[in-house]
Design goal:
The chain is an all-beta fold. Helix content is 0%, strand content 75%.
């Protein structure tokens, strides 16, 4: 089991690559993992959840700058299988469910919006002992992340519009983790990780109010990135 914090950033871009929205800030969280080993094989199931408010810098529909906070929860459930290739290196494959909740808080006469994202991901990569010293072993893990389309449910506050459901395109990302295992504290480990993914724009969907068309809505192309720190205790 462990705890940690991530500095996360989300950027939405228009069709010309110009930034529309930027969210950023620290998310503290906790995680739990269980692993079963059998000779050269290992199977693990893990879950983590991170939650806090992020700074939101964007624009209204009329182009006027708008700043607020976004109440953010990010969670994952992951199943991984690894095969020990050598004494120091293992190949990894897995599947993951990613859930993401955003509540862009309203300010004054500006209504907020609540969004729920979910997607399934395939993981492939390797982990290896990067180096050893008299005080600790350092292990590097790298994963390619292939994500299915994100499913997005948007709820507009004050009944501004009817709820909308959107689906983005598939996505690809990269995940790296460097973990130290100190010899003086054999049950503890400490690490740093980097996570990045770009998700392509969804199709335009009809935006409705009281069941009648009121325009269109889309989820722009967006990037999710994070750098995190974690401390874990192994039973």
């Amino acid at each position: 089991m462990g705890t940690g914090a991530r500095y996360v950033r989300m950027r939405e871009m228009d069709l010309n690559g110009r930034q529309l929205v930027r969210e950023h800030g620290w998310l503290p969280g906790v995680g739990l993992k269980a692993t079963r080993r059998d000779a050269a094989w290992a199977f693990g199931v893990s879950g983590d959840i991170y939650d806090a408010n992020l700074d939101y810098d964007g624009r209204l529909q009329n182009g006027v700058p708008f700043s607020t906070d976004t109440a953010t929860t990010q969670g994952r459930i992951t199943a991984e299988m690894s095969w020990q290739l050598t004494d120091t290196t293992a190949l990894i494959g897995g599947i993951e469910y990613d859930g993401w909740r955003r509540h862009v808080l309203g300010r004054g006469s500006i209504a907020g919006v609540k969004e729920r994202y979910s997607s399934w991901r395939l993981l492939a990569g390797a982990s290896s002992t990067a180096w050893r010293s008299s005080s600790a072993d350092f292990r590097l893990k790298g994963l390619m992340v292939l994500a299915g389309p994100e499913h997005l449910h948007a709820h507009f506050e004050n009944q501004l519009y009817d709820d909308a459901v959107l689906t983005t395109k598939s996505a690809a990302g990269l995940r790296l983790d460097l973990t130290a295992y100190p010899r003086a504290f054999p049950h503890f480990s400490f690490g740093i990780n980097v996570d990045w993914m770009r998700i392509r724009r969804s199709n335009d969907e009809i935006l409705r109010k009281d069941g009648l068309p009121a325009g269109t809505v889309t989820q722009p192309q967006h990037e999710r990135s994070a750098i995190g720190f974690h401390a874990d205790y192994r039973f």
